[in-house]
Each structure stands twice: as C-alpha cells, then as structure tokens.
Inverse folding.
C-alpha cells in the first residue's frame, strides 16, 4: 500500500522537535458566482490534506524543500514577513495527498499549512481575516483555513459567513481529465453570466445556507448541483449530465464541481453499499473517460497540528 504524505513525513525518523501543521483540500466548491458585483464562492473542504513541517534554522532565511515546486508558498511567506514585520529563519517541507491542477485547492492547502506553521513557529498571531487577505494577495484562494464551510470572496480574502459542515456527507471525487490553472479561469465570461442570473444565484445561495444550518444534506446537494449545472456554461465538462443521471439513479443526492477545475463530486449520505454501487456504475459507464480520485467526506476547514 502506498504511503500517505503524512506517513512519508512522520516515518521512519520523525523529528519530535519540529512543528507539523495540516490544511484540507476541497472537492471544488459547493457554489460560486457573483452577486451585486461581489465575487464569491462557498468552499467544500474534504478529508484530504497538505502537510507542513517547519523547524527553526537558527539564522535568517527560508530553506524551502522543493522550492521550484512551491514558488507561491515562498511568495506568500516573503510578503507576510514584510507586511506583518516578522523574520523568517525556518526550514520548511511540504507534503500533500491532494492532486494538483484539478480544482481541489491543492495550492490553497499548501500555502495555508505552510503559512500557519511559520506563524506558530514565529509566535506570530494573525486574525483569520488578516491571514486570508495575505493569502489572497498571491492568487485566488478557497481559504481553507477558515473553520466550517466558508462563504468568501476568493479574490480579496473577505469572509462573508461561516457555516457548520454537514455530517455524513460523502463525496466520490471523479476527475474528467486534464489540468487547469485557476488564474486562467475566464472571469470576464463568468461575471457576465452571473450578472444576468442574479435571482438564480441568490436562490441557490439561500438554499445552500439553509441546508448547511439545518443539516439537510439533500438541500446542500441540490444547491451544489444547480451551481454545477450553471457552471457548464462557463467551464463545460462533457461527462457531467450523464454522471449526474447515473448518480441520482443509484441513490446519490447530487453532483458538485470544481468551477475552475476538472473534478466533479458525487454527493451522497454515508453508505458503504451505495458507495460500491456508485463506483461500479461509474466505472462501467465511463471506463477511462473518468478516473475516480477517491471517496472522501466533507469536513470543517481549518489548520491543525498533528
């Protein structure tokens, strides 16, 4: 069995003097749009993580393992040190189980875990909102460090509302193929469509929030599915409609999407038999046209020691 990123980090010679922080990725978003000119998304954290290991260097500087792969982390940390007036003197390693370029917030999770680890190691205390503003200066972010399910402006870091994560909401994550850079998302086209569908977006957001607060999984999935259908006009996924039909026929609640990525999430109440049926039906119908990333469940966002 292949080791997870956490196992690779901690075994066989884990350094007990190091600080270890993890942050979750997402299965795309539950909803994304713009209302009254304000861009927003509602994130969808799942139990798939990026991990940061940090140790003091004893001198000024930042030693970042695999630096060429994590330039956005370096940019964030240099910006944060300048804006919040603290010194970097750390060795930092990042490990992740989150697929990259799929719309699963891999970069957001990497940056959040690394930034939180450096802050804690440096005894720097930032509010979650200040943290979010700094992160979003580098690139759009799902802001997975906020607790709960977050309604945010992913471009500015503003938090509009934090809602409870639903219990027993499983998500079978499937990948439609390819890679997408979030920065290349066609925001002009998207904003034009959002502007002409304000009542629909408001209704979706209202339904989603009511479902999250009441624990109504069907309402959460319905709102997320409506948002994914709407997103077909912006970032078309040819497998979506048939995947939705197959999933609903099997007993799932709906399908959400990565609005600027390649993954779809089949949402269903935790049930082992249903999971196996979904995997079987999807595999038989799509073959190699869809790859199953994994079965996960929605969790509260946040950065945690482990």
């Amino acid at each position: 069995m292949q080791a997870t990123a956490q196992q690779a980090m901690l075994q066989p010679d884990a350094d007990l003097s190091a600080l270890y922080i993890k942050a979750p990725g997402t299965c795309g978003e539950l909803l994304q749009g713009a209302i009254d000119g304000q861009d927003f998304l509602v994130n969808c954290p799942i139990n798939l993580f990026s991990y940061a290991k940090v140790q003091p260097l004893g001198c000024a500087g930042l030693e970042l393992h695999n630096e060429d792969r994590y330039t956005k982390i370096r940019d964030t940390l240099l910006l944060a040190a300048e804006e919040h007036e603290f010194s970097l003197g750390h060795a930092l390693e990042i490990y992740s189980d989150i697929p990259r370029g799929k719309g699963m917030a891999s970069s957001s999770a990497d940056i959040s875990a690394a930034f939180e680890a450096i802050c804690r190691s440096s005894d720097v205390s930032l509010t979650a909102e200040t943290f979010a503003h700094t992160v979003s200066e580098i690139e759009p972010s799902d802001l997975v460090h906020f607790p709960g399910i977050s309604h945010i402006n992913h471009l500015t870091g503003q938090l509009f509302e934090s809602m409870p994560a639903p219990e027993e909401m499983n998500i079978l994550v499937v990948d439609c193929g390819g890679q997408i850079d979030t920065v290349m998302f066609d925001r002009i086209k998207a904003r034009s469509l959002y502007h002409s569908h304000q009542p629909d977006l408001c209704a979706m957001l209202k339904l989603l929030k009511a479902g999250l607060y009441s624990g109504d999984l069907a309402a959460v999935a319905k709102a997320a599915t409506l948002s994914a259908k709407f997103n077909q006009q912006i970032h078309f996924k040819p497998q979506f409609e048939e995947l939705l039909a197959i999933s609903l026929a099997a007993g799932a609640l709906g399908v959400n999407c990565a609005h600027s990525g390649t993954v779809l999430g089949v949402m269903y109440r935790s049930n082992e038999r249903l999971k196996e049926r979904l995997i079987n039906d999807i595999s038989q119908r799509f073959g190699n046209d869809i790859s199953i990333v994994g079965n996960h469940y929605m969790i509260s966002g946040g950065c945690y020691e482990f």
About this structure: The chain is about 35% helix and 25% strand.
